[in-house]
Amino acid sequence: MNLARNKPYIGKLLKDFRRMGQRLAESVGNDGPGLLRIDGRPLVYLFGSHTFGPGDRDLPAVGAALLRAREEFAEAFGAYPYLVGDESIFPGDPQVALDRRYRARFFDAVTRYHHYDERHVRALSNGSTVRLDATYRDRLVRLERRNMEGFADVSNRYTNDPVLVILSSAAGFAKRGLPALQASRDDYVALLEAMQGLTDEHLELRHRRRPQSARPAAPLVFVGSWNEEFEGHALMPAAQNRALADRRQDGFDWLYAIKSRYGVAPVA
Asked: What is the rounded distance in angstroms from the CA atom of residue 50 to the CA atom of residue 24?
C-alpha cells in the first residue's frame, strides 16, 4: 500500500519527520546537548494530530503513517523520538473519543495545544472578559482529571509504558472577535500550582500501575498557545498582550510567574 499516494498529507508527514531528524542530527548530533530528551530520546511534538483520520476507516492508515514517521526520524537521526501527540480532549468533549485513544498508542505522551472552553467563551458577548480566577481554574482541573482518566488504560505500542498525559498550562487567549481571558501574574501562578499538583498525582498513579515504566526525570507541564501575536497573546514580551491583567513588570509578568514556580524570580 502506497500510503503517501493514497493520503497526500501522509507523504508530507513522512518527509517532515525525515528532514527534522536530519536537521537535528546535523545541528546538535544524536548524542549531543541542546535537545530536550525523555527516556534518552529527543522530544518531538506533533501539533494537530487529533485531526488525522477522525473517521474509523482512516485510522489504520494513520497508524501505519505514524509508525513510518517514527522510523523515518530514527533512520535520519540515529534514535527514535519521544513522540508527543496533540490528542488531549477539549472541554466540550463528553469523553476521550476512540480515535484519540487509537492514535495515542503510537505516542509516548499526549497533550493539548490550548485549554480554553471555546463553547463557553463563544456564549459570552464580544468585548467581555473572562478572568482566570478560582472558578475558571476549577473548570480546567476537572477537564484535566477527565483527560487523565480517559487515557489511564492506554499504553504505547512500542514500549508498553502507560501513555503519559502532559497537562496544559496555557493561561491566556485574546482571539479577535472573542472575549479575552484575562490573567494576572498571581492568577497564572495559581494555575501552574494546580497543574503541577495534578501532574505529580498522575505520575504517582502511573508509577503504581506499572512500576517498571519509564519515568521522566522531572514532571512535565506544557506551556503553549502563547506566542500567537495575531491572536493577541504572547509570553515574551507581552507588552501588547490583551490577556494580561494587572501589569506590574513591563509585560513580563507571566514569564516571572513561570520562573517563580520553577526557578527564581523577582518578588512583585
From this structure: 25
Cα→Cα distances 235→67, 225, 227, 258, Å: 34, 9, 6, 10
For 170-189, how does the pLDDT look when each residue is reduced to its tens digit (9 = 90+)?
A: 756 656 666 667 778 888 88
User: Which of 129, 109, 133, 152 is closest to 232 using CA atoms?
Assistant: 129
pLDDT at 2: 44
The string of pLDDT tens digits covering residues 209-227 is 877 776 666 677 777 655 5
49-58, 91-100, 173-182: least confident range: 173-182
Domain positions in the chain: 1-86, 93-104+118-268
- CA–CA dist 187, 172 (Å, integer): 10
- Chain centroid, CA 266 distance in Å: 28
Count of residues for the chain?
Answer: 268
| Whole-structure pTM value | 0.85
CA 126/CA 122 separation, integer angstroms: 8
Q: 121, exposed or middle or buried, with CB in 10 Å at 0-12, 13-18, 19+? A: middle
Query: 174: which 3 cell numbers?
Result: 485574546
Across 14-32, b (16+ Cβ under 10 Å) vs e yields beebbebbeebbeeeeeee
For residue 233, give every residue at least 6 positions away whose Cβ sits within 8 Å of its Cβ, in sequence order, or none. 172, 173, 174, 225, 226, 241, 242, 243
CB 42 within 8 A of CB 31: no
